[in-house]
Design goal:
- By secondary structure, the chain is mainly alpha-helical.
- About 60% of the residues lie in helices and about 10% in strands.
- The chain is built from 7 helices and 3 strands; from the N terminus they run αααβααββαα.
- The N and C termini lie far apart (about 70 Å).
Length: about 200
């Protein structure tokens, strides 16, 4: 009986030692497995969603996992996609406003440099916050692990429409942003395309 007990302990040690000595799976395999069968926009970003450049929109991709609540996963993914759009909009709007500032000489909208910069940031935030309400989820995908991916978009026309309705912007600033919107977002698309081709 003691011999069987001793053999059992030795066998357990051998099996346990073999399990401890095995190399862990590389993290890249987990990512590859997670994205198996994913649409292009999940792997490459939202610019991969539109084939026709004229139909492109300001977009973001978000994901949420680790929950069995489908509604929570969906709203989490959409919120993260909207955050990505907000970052893009903030940069683009401030760039449009700085371009406007550079083409004006003084005037009522801009005073000294420090106040100008603060004004640009504030206006950029206002425009971003208001236009984000016009975003919509365009597509979604769920991985085998249950992670919910969402692509959310805002088209340029909705952006311009939201800016045109902002009562707290002066007419000149409102016009400047609307006039520069198409060109600014077209430039953004080109930059994203170049990044994707690398």
């Amino acid at each position: 009986m003691k011999r069987f007990a001793l053999l059992g302990i030795v066998a357990a040690l051998v099996v346990g030692g073999a399990a401890c000595s095995s190399t862990p799976e590389p993290p890249g395999n987990h990512v590859r497995d997670e994205l198996a069968g994913a649409p292009d926009w999940v792997r490459k970003g939202c610019v991969a969603f539109w084939d026709d450049e004229d139909d492109r929109k300001i977009c973001g991709v978000g994901s949420a996992g680790g929950t069995r609540n489908a509604g929570l996963a969906r709203s989490g993914a959409v919120a993260r996609a909207r955050t990505e759009i907000a970052r893009t909009l903030q940069v683009q709007v401030e760039s449009m406003l700085k371009d406007y500032q550079a083409t004006t000489t003084g005037g009522q909208d801009f005073g000294n440099a420090a106040a100008d910069d603060q004004h640009l940031v504030d206006v950029g935030r206002q425009i971003t916050d208001m236009t984000l309400s016009g975003t919509e989820m365009i597509d979604s995908w769920i991985s085998d692990s249950g992670t919910f991916y969402a692509i959310v978009a805002l088209d340029t026309e909705r952006f311009k429409d939201a800016v045109s309705k902002m009562q707290n912007l002066s007419d000149s600033v409102r016009r400047a942003v609307i006039e520069r919107a198409d060109e600014a977002f077209r430039d953004l698309d080109e930059q994203l395309d170049k990044r994707r081709e690398r």
